[in-house]
Write a structure and sequence with these properties.
disordered N terminus; seven-stranded mixed β-sheet; alpha/beta
């Protein structure tokens, strides 16, 4: 009781992610190990695991069943199980500059990205912590993270922090103020796009695109304020590592998983940690 009371004097923080067994073996186990090694003990990592449960016993790490907690996801997947369009396998929608439909590929794989949206919105409406950060499971922590850094990522007067880009947000890392008066409404709206299949009315069906649709709706309505973590004049390719996150974390998005790290020459802002000098 004393420890809990002391913890509640300041804001409490959680990190959330999701993965399946293949993802766990390939990259998520490294995320978990690096979290346990480098993050402050005051922060808990919640892992939404799809169709399996890891055997890890790690400090401040909790495992939840994705299907057991996110019934809407189960319904969405069942509804679109035999719908190739919902898996990005059928061309559709707006035309490109050659007059051909652009809706084909992973950016229109609504089923794939629904896993993340349902994990985010379940955690966002059920966690006891004050602030929740989402990090993709192919994120690794290479430097010890000070609590002051965690606290500074999302000011108490903002609802979101995110990595902005010119076309859509890089949602490999997003922060949510769970004590904000608009939190439940935001989470409900985010999930509504999948519960009611509204996602298929949008230009793209990935979570980054839908997140921006909801974020702008709330920002333009004067309901929330956000903090963009991407420094000015940083390009769209890999803003994660050039932001302040890159002092402690690396995001192994795409082919970087096979390489085991991002390349130092991808940095657009100088970073001091030795990690970026050992490429």
């Amino acid at each position: 009781m004393i420890a809990r009371a002391l913890r509640r004097k300041g804001r409490s923080f959680a990190l959330v992610t999701t993965f399946n067994q293949v993802g766990y073996e390939r990259y998520a186990r490294h995320m978990i190990a690096s979290f346990a090694r480098c993050w402050p003990k005051q922060v808990t990592l919640y892992c939404y695991c799809e169709s399996f449960r890891p055997d890890d016993v790690a400090r401040n790490v909790r495992f939840l069943g994705l299907e057991e907690t996110c019934h809407g996801l189960v319904a969405f997947k069942e509804r679109h199980r035999d719908n190739p369009r919902a898996h990005g396998l059928v061309r559709h929608g707006p035309l490109d500059d050659r007059g051909k439909p652009v809706g084909l590929g992973f950016r229109w794989d609504a089923v794939r990205f629904a896993h993340k949206v349902y994990a985010v919105t379940h955690a966002g409406r059920t966690l006891a912590e004050d602030v929740m950060f989402w990090a993709d499971a192919d994120t690794v922590t290479f430097e010890r993270v000070p609590m002051s850094f965690v606290e500074g990522l999302l000011p108490a007067d903002k609802y979101l922090c995110y990595l902005g880009r010119s076309y859509f947000t890089e949602c490999g890392f997003v922060g949510y103020n769970l004590r904000h008066e608009q939190n439940a409404r935001f989470m409900g709206r985010f999930r509504q796009f999948y519960d009611e299949d509204l996602v298929f009315d949008e230009f793209e069906w990935q979570d980054d695109w839908i997140f921006d649709v909801v974020r702008r709706e709330f920002e333009n309505g004067g309901l929330i304020e956000s903090r963009n973590l991407t420094p000015e004049n940083v390009g769209d390719a890999h803003p994660f590592i050039s932001s302040e996150l890159g002092n402690y974390l690396d995001h192994l998005k795409g082919p970087r998983k096979d390489r085991g790290r991002s390349a130092a020459d991808e940095l657009e802002v100088r970073k001091e940690p030795p990690y970026w000098r050992s490429d």
